[in-house]
Design a protein that fits this description.
The complex is a heterodimer.
Chain A lengths: L1 H21 E6 L14 H10 L4 E3 L5 E3 L2 E7 L2 E6 L13 H12 L14 E6 L4 E6 L6 H4 L8 H7 L1 H6 L7 E7 L3 E6 L12 E6 L3 H9 L5 E2 L7 H5 L4 E16 L10 H10 L2 H8 L4 E3 L23 H10 L7 E7 L6 H13 L4 E7 L1 H9 L7 E7 L6 H8 L19 H12 L3 H18 L2 E14 L2 E2 L14 E2 L2
Parallel strand pairs in A: 1-10, 1-11, 14-15, 14-16
Antiparallel strand pairs in A: 2-3, 4-5, 5-7, 6-7, 8-9, 9-10, 11-17, 12-16, 12-17, 13-17, 18-19
Chain B lengths: L1 H28 L4 H4 L6 H11 L5 H13 L13 H36 L4 H15 L2 H15 L11 H31 L2 H8 L4 H38 L5 H11 L2 H29 L7
Helix pairs in contact in B: 1-4, 1-12, 5-6, 5-8, 5-10, 5-11, 5-12, 6-8, 7-8, 7-10, 8-10, 9-10, 10-11, 10-12, 11-12
Classes of the chains: A alpha+beta, B mainly alpha.
């Protein structure tokens, strides 16, 4: 009798250990809001859906993209041809055909029921099925971003949604991706199971569980006790604890997010003078900020872009060297030998140690005689002030994560000044007016030839470098805590794609 | 008695209306939530479209009227984030919160009342000093700090209990202690004071003179009378428990209302915030009614007309 109990116990224990051994647990700060892959705006939601669905084009870790579910080719400036790989099936057996893909476009373009990703596909006029696996997409104007936008086209099943309805689908998703949906207990866990018949190969991890753990220190504690395998947004302060634990380690990757300070260059104040703006760039010690305030989790950068972006140019993005003497000289030349005073806003708790970074900048500028009146803002108030152009300061610190991986989403959106005759007005984030720059970025929107676009962005970056409309700071790193048994390197787009992961002994 | 309950229930309705109105205007003072819902680089047209879709471009009185009209029909609106009915989302999180608050209260009663009685009976001894010191500590330690210390000691160092999550009794232990400690301390102090006061009263002297055993004197007579302020405090503390649950649920990843509401506030998900304010208000109003009714049973002198 006694013996039997022991055997039972041992079996129970072993099966438990085994179950855990094949399951990878990922802890994020919040739960998914929906499992419809094209109707959300949050990274944590996208991380779950990316494992269940496939996008038409896939983003690679270096920021470039490649064909995934199929291929697209420009026939002319306004027409694209799409070819789907034959034989791809959804988890419910439905086949991926041109009809299904057209349904996906139509769903996104339906003006009556806009989805959160609809805006990425706005220029599309019409989609036409030309064969079982081929279709044509017509656009209203040249759409050079079409291929990069195809990475947002997470493909959903037609028949399943038509039969079960969009609401049911958003809670019980069916995709073509490497993992099948098992269950979603709200605010507790989302369980996924490997799709053994995945068209791109068998996933190595059998089971993936996403758990929302809002409190950062609780996430660290779970990682250290082996409750979870990957945690996101590790704070630099927790790095030594994780590194010293023996069970987990810190892995980081430069992110797509740049941190910088926008200068309000209009009007007649000192910031109107490009010499003053250059002086400010020389007066800030980016290296020291990254080392001492960010614990090394940043990369100084001297332009609005970073190496992942299409249009980035290494020479033109070289960080401005720290040279307080040169800064003082430039200030004297501009007529401010004794410096001047300006005001600056910054958020707190939005980006990695943002408040401390702003304070460090203030301290460094003081050394060249420039006084900064720093105002820390609560995020929702700050966003409203920025969007309505109602900031009460001469400068503002912000981060910009360009998830399109194309210069357009940074250069046009943040710096286009509206000086081109008949062109769009100045964007709401831009305080700078440079006619030449405006001409280049607008032209780059009108053509699909990527080599020519690259040339235009190079010229545009030269204008930015000379005009220095911002104080350029650094590219922020994303920090993860990862159990040693997980073979995986973090990606710049923050994606937690379990198909990339493997559990080792 | 029945008239009293009916009148009070009508008042609960007034409370709900007040809470709904407050929630509406406080949120709208902070501006429409469209700016937070869309990414920074969303086009002005997309913002205008969303604003129209949710009716944020109507005059405030129109929005308020529509909001009340819908509420009256049980329609709390749809979450701006997940597109699901707000009330359902909030109520779906309620069992976890009630479970935590209930466990916290039970913990507080089981520990707090005996501790209070002990302190009263052993007045002037080391035992009283110990109870009262612990009670003072329990009332002054921040919930946030206590939660993290418990995680460090029982989760990280000793590996005795799970750190976060939901499901088993073991998951319940640390959050219960975290949320219940403040209330335990309050109840212990109040019970001690109450019992001490009652022990000095005439009826206790009479009871003792009758030759009743000390046990009966203390537990049947003194404690029952000392219970009235304790019941009051339990009613009031439910508010503390629920607000403590916001922090506790966040620390322990407990899938309850508190943590859910906190997130909704951060994200500007108005319908969810409004629904939860109303649900919280109703919950507290009903608890207060229950407390008032409990007086009837505890103290025959209390009469409601």
């Amino acid at each position: 009798m006694q013996k039997r109990w022991w055997v039972l116990f041992a079996v129970a224990f072993l099966s438990l250990a085994w179950a855990r051994g094949d399951t990878l647990v990922i802890a994020q700060g919040v739960d998914a809001t929906t499992l419809d892959p094209v109707n959300h705006q949050e990274t944590p939601t996208g991380n779950v859906t990316a494992n269940i669905f496939d996008n038409f084009y896939r983003r690679l870790p270096d920021g470039s993209y490649e064909p995934w579910l199929g291929e697209a080719k420009a026939l002319d400036n306004l027409t694209w041809e799409l070819k789907i790989k034959p034989g791809i099936k959804f988890h419910n057996g439905e086949e991926l055909t041109a009809e299904v893909l057209k349904f996906n476009f139509d769903r996104l373009l339906d003006p009556k029921k806009p989805l959160k990703y609809s805006t990425y596909f706005k220029p599309i006029k019409k989609v036409e099925v030309t064969g079982k696996y081929t279709l044509k997409v017509y656009t209203e104007k040249p759409f050079p971003l079409f291929l990069t936008r195809l990475t947002y086209l997470w493909v959903v099943p037609k028949k399943y949604i038509e039969e079960k309805g969009a609401d049911y689908f958003a809670n019980h998703p069916v995709g073509t991706g490497p993992y099948k949906f098992v269950k979603w207990v709200k605010d507790q866990e989302i369980v996924l199971e490997a799709n053994e018949d995945y068209w791109a190969g068998k996933p190595k991890v059998k089971r993936v569980v996403f758990r929302p753990i809002p409190e950062a220190s609780s996430r660290v504690a779970e990682l250290l006790t082996g409750g979870v395998d990957i945690i996101t947004n590790l704070s630099p302060e927790a790095v030594p604890t994780v590194e010293g634990s023996g069970v987990a380690e810190v892995r980081s990757v430069p992110s797509i997010r740049n941190i910088f300070i926008v200068l309000d260059v209009k009007g007649e104040g000192p910031l109107h003078d490009p010499k003053v703006r250059l002086a400010l760039n020389y007066a800030v010690d980016k290296e020291a900020i990254v080392k001492h305030v960010l614990g090394g989790f940043g990369v100084p950068v001297g332009c609005p872009l970073n190496p992942y972006m299409f249009g980035y140019d290494e020479a033109l993005c070289e960080p401005f060297p720290y040279d307080p003497e040169k800064a003082k000289k430039l200030l004297a030349e501009a007529g401010y030998p004794n410096g001047f005073t300006f005001s600056m806003s910054a958020p707190s708790g939005r980006y990695l140690n943002d408040r401390q970074v702003a304070e460090a900048v203030v301290g460094q500028l003081k050394k060249v005689g420039v006084k900064v009146d720093l105002r820390i803002k609560e995020w929702s108030t700050y966003v409203k002030q920025i969007l309505n152009r109602k900031l009460d300061t001469d400068a503002w610190m912000i981060g910009w994560g360009n998830a399109q991986f194309d210069a357009d989403n940074t250069l046009f959106t943040l710096l286009y000044g509206g000086t081109v005759e008949g062109g769009p007005p100045q964007t709401k984030f831009s305080y700078w007016k440079d006619p030449e720059f405006d001409k280049y970025v607008l032209e780059a929107q009108q053509i699909v030839d990527q080599e020519k676009r690259k040339e235009l962005y190079k010229k545009a970056l030269e204008r930015v470098r000379q005009g220095a409309p911002w104080i350029f700071l650094y590219q922020q790193k994303d920090i993860y805590g990862v159990a040693k048994r997980v073979k995986w390197q973090p990606r710049p787009d923050e994606l937690l794609w379990a198909f990339d992961m493997e559990l080792v002994k | 008695m029945i008239a009293f309950v009916v009148r009070r229930l009508l008042l609960v309705g007034v409370v709900a209306w007040g809470a709904a109105t407050l929630a509406f205007f406080l949120l709208y003072l902070s501006g429409d939530p469209v700016d937070l819902l869309l990414p920074l680089d969303a086009s002005p047209e997309a913002r205008a479209e969303l604003r129209r879709a949710y009716g944020f471009d109507d005059p405030l009185y129109v929005q308020y009227g529509r909001y009340l009209w819908k509420l009256a029909h049980g329609d709390f609106g749809v979450s701006l984030r997940s597109q699901e009915p707000a009330l359902g989302l909030v109520l779906g999180r309620m069992p976890a919160t009630l479970k935590l608050a209930g466990a916290g209260l039970l913990f507080a009663l089981i520990l707090g009342i005996p501790a209070g009685v002990l302190a009263a009976l052993k007045k002037g001894t080391f035992a009283e000093l110990l109870v009262m010191t612990l009670a003072l500590l329990g009332q002054s330690i921040p919930v946030y700090f206590l939660g993290l210390v418990l995680i460090m000691v029982f989760g990280l160092k000793l590996h005795w209990l799970p750190i976060s999550g939901y499901g088993t009794i073991r998951h319940l232990i640390l959050p219960t202690i975290t949320v219940g400690t403040f209330v335990t301390a309050s109840i212990a102090r109040l019970t001690r004071n109450g019992v001490l006061q009652e022990l000095r009263s005439d009826y206790v002297r009479t009871a003792r003179a009758k030759g009743l055993s000390e046990r009966v004197v203390v537990y049947k007579h003194a404690l029952r009378n000392a219970a009235i302020p304790v019941v009051t405090i339990v009613g009031l503390q439910l508010g503390t428990l629920l607000s403590g649950a916001v922090i506790t649920e966040t620390i322990f990843a407990w899938p309850g209302m508190g943590r859910f509401v906190l997130l909704a506030v951060e994200q500007g998900d108005f319908p969810v915030v409004q629904a939860s304010v109303i649900v919280f208000a109703l919950l507290l109003a009903l608890v207060n009614l229950a407390v008032d009714l409990a007086y009837l049973w505890l103290d025959p002198r209390v009469r409601y007309a």
